[in-house]
Amino acid sequence: MKKLKVKKETSLKDFVASQLGVSKNRAKELIDSRTVFVNNKRVWIASHQLKSGDIVELPVFEKDEKWSIEKNILYEDNFIIAVNKPPFLESENKKGSVEDLLRSYKKDRKIRAIHRLDKETSGVLLFAKNSKIFERFKKLWQEKKIHKQYLALSHEEADFKKKVINIPVDGKLAKSFVYTLKTSMGFSLFKVEIPTGRKHQIRIHLSKIRHPVVGDKIYGLKNITNPILKNVKRHMLHSYIISFYHPFLKKKITIKAKLFKDFENFGKSIRLL
């Protein structure tokens, strides 16, 4: 993180723009990403008024390895395609989403995302090759016949091997099975299985049991003083394995997605990977 001291009262947007030499619109985009800290607290209001003496910390972005759709296809048959989705790309609908990139690569606009992952969540993402296949797999999802395993790096060392969480999300039934794989340095590595798939379910459930996901800007820690945590640019959640009985091929399919470097590097730094 780049640490800067404020010398005169100004808005956060104006301060970021002047310090980085970028437009105010670009400064607002950076602030909107919730990676800017003021006095050890995340601040995402562009009009936030800074006072003289405030300490602002800005992320230093390293050049990422170029992600290519063709190198991240995990599985393909005549019916579906599985992709290892990177963090910071939308799953579907928008231009530049994984769905859009896959359609362009395959030159096939009929491809549809069967489910979605949050923008910052990485891992296995399934696509159907046409609407008929899409509807069949959607039915599998509704019947809870798709088995999903996630890996999460969370705050605090867990004192349990397995915990079942039944806490509604948006008023709907939500169940998560949380398994502690390892603890170290005040953090835990969890395997999480979710028979239900509510929006932000894992992040909400882990926060409710006081093990918020590292880097979670909504349900995570508000005050952050540890420098290694300030350098985490997204929540550390990865869709690791999806398995199911293939309705067309009539056999069990298991698809596993390797970790991306940011997740792996942070996990190693706290001795959990």
Label this structure with key terms.
single chain, 273 residues, alpha+beta, Structural Genomics Hypothetical 15.5 Kd Protein In mrcA-pckA Intergenic Region, Chain A, Pseudouridine synthase, 2 domains, 10-stranded mixed sheet, 4-stranded antiparallel sheet, 7 helices, 16 strands, 30% strand, globular
Looking at CATH, the homologous superfamily of the largest domain is Pseudouridine synthase
- Ranges with pLDDT <50 over ≥5 residues? none
In percent, how much strand structure appears in the residues? 25-35%
Shape: globular
Instruction: Return Rg in Å.
Output: 20 Å
The number of E-state strands comes to 16
Level-1 CATH class name of the largest domain: Alpha Beta
Q: What is the rounded distance between the termini?
A: 23 Å
Number of structurally distinct domains: 2
CATH architecture grouping of the largest domain: 2-Layer Sandwich
Q: Give the % helix.
A: 10-25%
Number of helices: 7
In this structure, how is the largest beta sheet organized? 10 strands, mixed
The CATH topology assignment of the largest domain is Pseudouridine synthase
Helix-strand pattern: EEHHEEEEEEHEEHEEEEHHEEH
- Structural category is alpha+beta
Question: Which whole number gives the mean pLDDT?
Answer: 93
Domain RNA-binding S4: 10-73
Pfam family, one: S4
Family: Belongs to the pseudouridine synthase RluA family.
Protein name: 23S rRNA pseudouridine955/2504/2580 synthase/23S rRNA pseudouridine1911/1915/1917 synthase
